[in-house]
Amino acid sequence: MSNPAEEAERLADVTEASLPDGAADELLGALLRVASDLLGVPVSGVSLVGEREQFFRAAQGLKASPVPRGLAPCTYAIQRPDEVMVVPDLAADPRFRSNPLVAGDPGLRFYAGAPLRGPRGGVIGTLGVLDRVPRSLAPAQAARLQDLARGISAALSLRHATREVHRAARTDSLTGALNRMALEEMLAADDPRNLGLLMIDLDGFKPINDTYGHAGGDRVLVEVASRLRRTVRPGDAVVRLGGDEFLVVTRGIERPAAGIGLAARIHAALAESFVLNGSSLTLRASIGFAAMPWHAADLPALMERADAALYAAKRAGRGITHAAGTAAEGEALGRAALEARLREAFAPGGIAPFHLAFQPIASLSTGEVTSAEALLRWRTENGFCLRPSELLPVIEGLGYSGALDRWVLGETCRLLARGDAPCPVAVNASASTFGVPGFDAEVAAALREHGLTGECLVIEMTESSLVGDAEAALANMHGLARLGVRVVLDDFGGGHGTLARLRDYPFHAIKIDRSLVTGCADGAQGLALMEAVADMAQAFSIPAVAEGVEDAAQLAVLSRLGVERAQGFLLSRPLPWEELEAAATAMPARLRAMLAEQASSVLP
């Protein structure tokens, strides 16, 4: 008798073998006709033993209902998987004389069964030959019956392997959710009426990968998929689109409110804490919802509307659900449309849809604008302005980071060549650009093309540029220094900045991560962190720039701690190039007034 685990596997094989399949049915029918003709019997069948009953998967010369497992010869035959079981007279055997097929119509008397194996190796039933009169079976006939049984077992295993290949091709290998291929086939076969799509993007997933590595991130994705499957309704499908993006296909939506209700249950399921490497962490998701016929007239439009709704949810603050409107006008691009536009833009001869805005960086001691950061912007035809946090992950995922860096550098140099720049301009270089040998030569070529010197340009890089080819990054820094181009370390203190970086690399300044700036005026801990970073910069004689300054209290703290420069909405929003000179002229008086007002407000 098999143990429970083996029996569970055996029963799984029985279930799969019982599934209808046109090609398999034809093959089984042909083999049963061969068995009947070869052994000269009127009845043959592929008999399967389930948990409580025996039933025929296919039969020749017999139509029979299932019978209790204990009365079936097949039940006893599978206990000796390498032998052919022969019962010369079923009516004379006390085990089988009560079997309805023996005691009643058709009055079977003879049975011989060769066991069949399932794909996992367990014995699932028999190839049986039967007669209405008692008889015997010669050894040669028994051997032929075993040969046919092996052929049927092989056919069932082949069908299982084919199904597994089909399933694997349509299943995400990490999470077990469906993949894009399965989604396309499912949508093509589905009745689109009352079909709803919930597009789900995890918020804050990148820091999990950064902190716990990809193995930790994979464990979270597996758990997310599991929670989604437990939350959706029977008949709904969970699809992993890629990365940390999932889709739930829900059927039978009678009104849009039903989809919003399912989204609320998904938010609740994902809000429960995840435990990773002994640490508890929380995860939120943004969800875009669209359903037919309310939001679209066909499936392609439905996908676009759900995708656009997801992006609207992320722009609205994340962790929420946004339902598509009743008309496409006024909605932003979704990810699929965004990717298509980017491919067009970066194709040879493509026209970049971007423009640059410039945010001044000012000295806290003099108020002078020392530089301005070039920031990427894209205003769509519908009037939405896509932020870098929306654009850059998509651009990076498509492999266009280098192309974008070259466009920003070239556009900045073109504007600087006009001769009306009030200050040097800082451009951001991605890790994949700065960490590659020859970036300094690309900058030199752009400067030469526009007749510029390196003093007009600043390059901002993140510490991730040093993780790959650190020697190439250092060589680029020295090459830029020879050109007169200054290099600034961006996002310092955001989780990865170290003293070793300040000691080993020739940075001209560090930009303090906005997360530290935001909390510097909110309490003793935030103040202490900012003070530590400011002291560190002063100890290395490296100017510190605070980014993301949004209120006067933060500005006062930064000035008191000796942070040299500041950047943020409090001082100036990003501006068109034409407005930068006027903003730089007005900045000293504006900054002095803000600091004086803040100082007077704290006097006793």
Explain the overall architecture.
The protein is an alpha/beta fold and 604 residues long. The protein has 3 domains: 4-169, GAF domain (Beta-Lactamase, 2-Layer Sandwich); 180-325, Alpha-Beta Plaits; 354-601, EAL domain (TIM Barrel). 45% of the residues lie in helices and 20% in strands. The protein contains 20 helices and 22 strands. An 8-stranded mixed β-barrel has the order 14-15-17-18-19-20-21-22, surrounded by 4 helices. A 6-stranded antiparallel β-sheet has the order 3-2-1-6-5-4. It has a 5-stranded mixed β-sheet with strand order 8-9-7-12-13, sandwiched between helices. Strand 14 and strand 15 (369-379) form a beta hairpin. Helix 2 (22-39) packs antiparallel against helix 5. Pfam families: EAL (PF00563), GAF (PF01590), GGDEF (PF00990). InterPro entries: Biofilm_reg_signaling (IPR052155), EAL_dom (IPR001633), EAL_sf (IPR035919), GAF (IPR003018), GAF-like_dom_sf (IPR029016), GGDEF_dom (IPR000160), Nucleotide_cyclase (IPR029787), Rev_trsase/Diguanyl_cyclase (IPR043128). This is Diguanylate cyclase (GGDEF)-like protein.
